[in-house]
Amino acid sequence: MRRLPLIAMGIVSLLLPLGTLADEPTKKGDEVPILRELSAKGVKFQEDGKVTKPTVVKNAKELAKVMSDEKELDRVTKEVNWDKQYLLVFSWGGSGGDKLTSETAKVKENEVVFKYMPGLTRDFRMHMRLYAVRNGVTWKFEAAKK
Predict the structure, then answer these.
(1) What is the predicted pLDDT for the residue at 110?
(2) What are the extents of the domains in the chain?
(3) pTM value?
(4) Partners of 143 in the beta sheet?
(5) Least crowded by CB within 10 Å, which of 35, 48, 64, 125?
(6) Which residues have a Cβ under 8 Å from the Cβ of 89 and sit 6 or more positions away?
């Protein structure tokens, strides 16, 4: 019988620190990633679009010009913090094997490098990509190594 109060006190002492941690404000939710790919569903295909020249979108009004579906427009608008991010909208036509990759630069901080590798097949496909980029981050293209 003497052990029961000791066990109860032990359990309470283990749970007490968890309660204090839950009350602390977290800054993780305030952080915006440098680059995040979003679903490009609803993005209009631009026939004259080039993979090396994305459309820069800085607000919801500009986004409405490059998206055709209202539901998808609302979804993307909710996913982007316009005060801290802007969008890069890629739309181009090319081989079904075309690849567009991105990485944060290792040499220069706050820079994103996009690499494009054209596909080898002769089929024509529409490609659309949508990226949310943190404000203050620059981007550039480099030739992809084969």
Answers:
(1) 87
(2) 33-143
(3) 0.74
(4) 116
(5) 48
(6) 40, 43, 54, 55, 56, 57, 66, 128, 129, 130
